[in-house]
């Protein structure tokens, strides 16, 4: 909000443009790399999760309401851009969380990937599909996601046990 005030914006209006949260979220996500909280072991997790929330909620908002963006594109183009960005960033965060064994990053990114996916399901199918079929498809997709997550977890556990054995 201070940066917004310095640029001439009224401080209460800071939240009206979700893009204002992107740069602070990146900085907060990177902060544990530069600050060592030896006495406080949970702070790195808090920084990463809060930064991801600060990044993914604005993307989720902009993927549905593109007219509030700073970008001068059409509303549909902005929404499509942020939908793709949401999927790309959430899958990238899942990969990063798996690679670095940051379970909180993996779990948070999984939640937002599912939110982006279900939002698209709603956009595609809600109007023309009978509601009982819509929720049946949602349930099947949830089961599929659980099966995929279980396989990823099992492969990570087996890789970790192989690494510990050697």
Structure notes:
The structure is a single chain. By secondary structure, the chain is mostly helical. The protein folds into two domains: about 1-115, no CATH class; about 130-165. The protein is about 75% helix and about 0% strand. The protein has helices at about 1-5, 20-35, 45-60, 75-100, 105-125, 130-165. Helix 2 packs antiparallel against helix 3 (about 45-60), helix 3 packs antiparallel against helix 4 and helix 3 packs parallel to helix 5. The protein starts with a helix and ends with a helix.
Please describe the topology of this protein:
Elements: H1 2-6, H2 22-34, H3 43-62, H4 75-100, H5 103-125, H6 131-165
Count of DSSP E strands? 0
Number of domains as seen in the coordinates: 2
Which whole number gives the mean pLDDT?
85
Strand content: under 5%
| Apparent shape | flat
- Give the proportion of residues in helices: over 70%
Structural class by secondary-structure content = mainly alpha
Using the CA coordinates, give the radius of gyration.
Answer: 19 Å
Q: H/E order of the elements?
A: HHHHHH
Largest sheet: none
Give the low-confidence spans: none
Number of helical runs?
A: 6
Q: How far apart, in Å, are the first and last alpha carbons?
A: 50 Å
């Amino acid at each position: 909000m201070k940066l917004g005030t310095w640029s001439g914006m009224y401080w209460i209006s800071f939240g009206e443009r979700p893009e204002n949260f992107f740069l602070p979220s990146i900085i907060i996500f990177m902060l544990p790399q530069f600050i060592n909280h030896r006495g406080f072991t949970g702070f790195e997790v808090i920084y990463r999760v809060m930064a991801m929330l600060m990044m993914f909620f604005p993307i989720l908002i902009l993927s549905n309401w593109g007219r509030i963006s700073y970008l001068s594109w059409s509303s549909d183009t902005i929404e499509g851009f942020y939908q793709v960005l949401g999927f790309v960033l959430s899958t990238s965060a899942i990969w990063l969380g798996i690679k670095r064994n940051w379970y909180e990053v993996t779990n948070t990114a999984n939640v937002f990937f599912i939110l982006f996916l279900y939002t698209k399901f709603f956009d595609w199918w809600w109007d023309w599909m009978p509601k009982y079929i819509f929720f049946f498809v949602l349930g099947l997709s949830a089961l599929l996601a659980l099966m995929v997550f279980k396989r990823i977890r099992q492969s990570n556990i087996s890789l970790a046990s192989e690494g510990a054995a050697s």
